[in-house]
Structure formats: C-alpha cells, structure tokens
Write a structure and sequence with these properties.
Layout (H helix, E strand, L loop, with lengths): L5 E2 L8 E5 L5 E6 L4 E6 L14 E6 L2 H21 L15 H6 L9 H16 L1
Antiparallel strand pairs: 1-2, 2-3, 3-4, 4-5
Helix pairs in contact: 1-3
Amino acid sequence: MNEQWEIVPEKSKEYLLEIKDPDGWYYAQVKWDGCVQYFRYYNTPMGVDIENDKDCDYIHICSVDEEIARLQALKRMAYKYFEQYGRADHNWEPDVVESTLFQAAGMFEINESRWADKHDEYIADALKEEL
C-alpha cells in the first residue's frame, strides 16, 4: 500500500482517478490522459473544517513527468546559485525522483565527471526549446 496516497473509490471511474493523502493535506484528480488537478490544503486538512476546504492551492498539470523535471531543475539551479554566495547551509535533499528527461537522454553516467552539471545543461537547453 502507498503511504502517501489513497484511492477515493466512490469518486473514481474508468477514466478518472480521485486520490488523497491519508492526512487530508493533498488531493488530486487524475484523468486517463495524464492530466492532473492537484490540490494542497494549508489551514486545516480537507474535510476537517468545511469552511477551510476552499483555502487550498490548485494547479492543473498536463504532464506530471515534465513538471517533476522542471521542479528538479529549478531546485538544482537554486542550490548552485545559493552555493556561490556561501549559502550552502541548508539541508537540500537529492532529487526525490529521477527526471524523465534524464532517463530519456540516457547520455550521462553516474561515473562520468561533472555528470550533474551536464544534466542541468541538458534540461536547461530542453526547456529553452519548449518556451
């Protein structure tokens, strides 16, 4: 069983998966085509106080893989930026999930020197082309 998500069976259909985290802070609707409506609650967990249920962040994502890759590239870029000013006093974790762009590229091996820097350059170039 997944510790971070539970299926909401009464709202899930053949073409739509409704899913929430067990603590009620996150909720998502995932369509068969990969689109995701993602909700994050911040005053109280969903359902605890109905008045607070409207207080949430919402984002519509059409490519979860692309969104993860973009966020991981953003994190690496921010880390490098702050590191150059001696602000490496934070506890940043390595990438939680390998980006699909990295997997698709298949061009950098862990043993290669400066592989992470080359990975960042590849993602930055790929993102510039898309914009």
